[in-house]
Design brief:
The protein has a domain of about 180 residues: Rossmann fold, CATH 3.40.50. About 40% of the residues are buried. Strands 6-7-8-3-9-10 form a six-stranded mixed beta sheet. A four-stranded antiparallel beta sheet has the order 2-1-4-5, covered by helices on one side. The chain has about 260 residues and is of the alpha/beta class. About 30% of the residues lie in helices and about 25% in strands. The termini are far apart.
Length: about 260
């Protein structure tokens, strides 16, 4: 049996102890001659307070990778570690708790509950925690109000999503992602449905929240103009992940890549 060398973990520019470690993670769908490998031995480390971007063409494996990091998918092989949690070893119930308590998700379409107000959308996320008793419900209300104020949405707290603009919905989604004080914030194409100026505002807000709150953030994006707000870049092509160089160099291109 041949022993293969362990892939080098991408740590360039990352001096602090990592909150996130992805070690030789592979995801294969199907078996035999129909098997398709979406991500192949991806490795990366990201520290507390870092906001990194993940670039790559459509079908390159970006969403599969962050889905494994966030516990939405289980790797075929390899290891995902968030803080003291070996995510790739968790069972189904444990993954549900992990996602509710340790990860905040911001999706392209915001995915807000349509019949809940902005404030209720935040409080609903808090209800997913195991410790959500009466005291926790009161604390969740206070936290929701604080986040909405910080996000400039106090006057919109009682509005349902269809009464909000695209930018407002994304700000509510950011508040929802931060509601349970997660270690990790995973952001998938947050600006895809926004114009350039609103996209910049949303990404700047994400960066500020991640930095001020000491979170670890990963943003999947096609829009190179948004990369300048991140600390580091990773690129994935055909399931292969590698460090992507200086964010400023990517931003200088100034154009969105093709979906």
């Amino acid at each position: 049996m041949t022993t293969e060398a362990t892939p080098q973990i991408a740590t360039e520019g990352n001096q602090a102890s990592p909150i996130l470690t992805v070690d030789a993670v592979t995801k294969t769908y199907g078996e035999g001659h129909t098997a398709v490998t979406a991500v192949h031995e991806a490795s990366m480390q990201v520290s507390k307070g870092e906001f990194v971007s993940l670039l790559g063409p459509s079908g390159s494996g970006k969403t599969t990778l962050i889905s494994m990091i966030g516990g939405l998918l289980t790797p075929t092989s390899g290891r995902v570690q968030v803080g003291d949690v070996a995510v790739s070893d968790l069972e189904s119930k444990q993954l549900t708790s992990f996602r509710a308590e340790r990860v905040g998700f911001v999706f392209q379409a915001s995915n807000l509950v349509p019949f809940l107000t902005a404030r209720e959308n935040l409080i609903w996320v808090a209800s997913l925690r195991k410790d959500h008793g009466r005291t926790a419900r009161k604390a969740a209300g206070r936290r929701a109000d604080e986040l909405l104020e910080e996000l400039g949405l106090t006057q919109r707290a009682g509005n349902v999503p269809e009464q909000l603009s695209g930018g407002e919905r994304q700000r509510v989604a950011i508040g929802r992602a931060l509601m349970n004080d997660p270690d990790l914030v995973l952001v998938d194409e947050p600006t895809a449905s926004l114009d350039t100026e609103m996209g910049r505002q949303v990404v700047q807000l994400l960066r500020r929240e991640i930095k001020d709150r000491g979170k670890t953030g990963i943003m999947v994006t096609h829009d190179l103009r948004m990369v300048e707000y991140t600390d580091r870049v990773f690129e994935i092509t055909d399931g292969l992940l590698e460090p992507g160089g200086d964010p400023a160099e990517h931003a200088a291109g100034g154009h969105a890549t093709k979906h």
